[in-house]
Design brief:
Length: 404
């Protein structure tokens, strides 16, 4: 029968990943202006409802049923057909329903990450259509290709907890969204609440232990490795970002420290169980430096990625996949692969190709998707709505009493 320890751990890990979506809402909510707090937060929370429904109806089946070596699965397990309380997953340690729920939490947060890029200027009906189509056409195919026995998995690409399947494709979708929607016409006074950003970062960091350690899907030494590597990379990245900003901007910025931590978390995600603790520290330092300068480059190019989704998640996810191709070691985890420093040059090339393919796919599909949606539902808010704030104009609510 099922192992109570493994099952209990995975239920806790699932709950931790669920907590990341409200954490993201607080993180984004603090970074935007006072007039747009609720509009950005509802985009995260509504994903919890819409994505759960879609996951139950077709999502889990498209990701994990059939389609071996292909791009997408089939509908054999639509509506969770054939999955009951006693249906085992894998070697039978945990119920299949636990795996369904765990993967569902990943599906919920991934499109929510994108919303930080187009804050203050996207209409809610268009976002709902975008949410459904993006999951169907971008997220589900990549989950199947990487974790569902699909094309990239068969080719030998490794992504432990979502460097490609979560962060890179979300970041590239964010960039496509920014270029399609265009710049904000009215600048907010942002961030309006750094304490909210700190609260969101804390919830994200806490939840990320379920995100990474839970991806082992059982409790063993690799679970512990993924757990500690998560914290090491986040900490090194946070301090690296802080120090760079301190030197270049002359002040130790709290928002920089928090953003650096998230960059480190995103970057270690694909490699957490496949590299040593020393390598995790290196990944954290590189993440802090590279993501900081990616955000700086974005600013110089005039891309209005409001909350730096591309620079943190897109670049961080891609960087983590490539760093795994450099630092991965089968001596650490026999289920992994040897990276470049251990003689695995071919593995590094596979990781690089996977990043390039996923980036192009996510960018192109997202841009075309928004173009098509805009033909039916206007994507961009009006000048009046943007100037007045989306909380009142789109949702008829306000996060704060007037004047407070």
């Amino acid at each position: 029968m099922f192992d109570a320890g493994h099952t209990g751990f995975m239920l806790v890990a699932t709950s931790l990943v669920m907590l990341m979506t409200p954490g993201l809402a607080f993180f984004y909510g603090g970074l935007v202006g006072r007039k747009n707090v609720l509009s950005i937060m509802i985009q995260s929370f509504v994903s919890m409802g819409v994505t759960t429904i879609l996951w139950y109806v077709v999502g889990f089946s498209l990701c994990f049923s059939g389609g071996e070596g292909g791009i997408i699965g089939n509908l054999d397990m639509a509506f969770l057909r054939g999955i009951g309380p006693d249906t085992p997953f894998g070697d039978g340690h945990i119920p299949m329903l636990v795996f369904v729920a765990y993967q569902m939490m990943f599906a919920i947060i991934t499109p929510a990450l994108i919303t930080g890029a187009f804050s203050n200027r996207v209409r809610f009906p268009a976002y709902l259509v975008f949410l459904v189509l993006w999951l169907l056409l971008v997220y589900f195919p990549f989950v199947h290709m990487i974790w569902g026995g699909g094309l990239l998995a068969k080719w030998g690409v490794l992504d432990f907890a979502g460097g490609i399947a979560v962060h890179n494709i979300a970041g590239m979708a964010a960039l496509a969204s920014v270029l399609f929607v265009g710049k904000r016409r009215f600048e907010d006074s942002v961030p309006h609440s750094i304490p909210l950003v700190a609260l969101g970062t804390g919830l994200l960091w806490f939840g990320w232990y379920g995100f990474n350690a839970g991806s082992e899907l059982q409790v063993d030494s690799i679970t512990a490795l993924a757990f500690i590597n998560t914290d090491i990379a986040a900490s090194f990245a946070a301090i690296s970002w802080l120090m760079i900003a301190w030197v270049l901007e002359k002040k130790p910025k709290f928002v920089g420290l928090l953003t650096g931590a998230v960059a480190g978390l995103a970057t270690i995600t694909p490699a957490a169980a496949f590299v040593s603790t020393g390598s995790a520290a290196i990944i954290g330092i590189v993440a802090g430096v590279v993501c900081y300068f990616a955000v700086s480059m974005k600013n110089k190019l005039g891309w209005d990625d409001s909350l730096d989704v591309w620079g943190v998640h897109g670049v961080g996810g891609a960087l983590g996949i490539i760093m795994l191709g450099v630092l991965g070691s089968t001596a650490i985890n026999a289920a992994g692969a040897d990276g470049l420093i251990h003689g695995g040059s071919s593995f590094l090339m596979k990781q690089i190709v996977a990043v390039v393919v996923s980036s192009i796919y996510a960018f192109v599909f997202t841009y075309v998707m928004l173009w098509l949606i805009n033909k039916v539902f206007p994507v961009r808010t009006s000048d009046v709505e943007e100037e007045s704030g989306l909380d009142i104009t789109l949702h008829g609510e306000s996060a704060y009493e007037h004047g407070i």
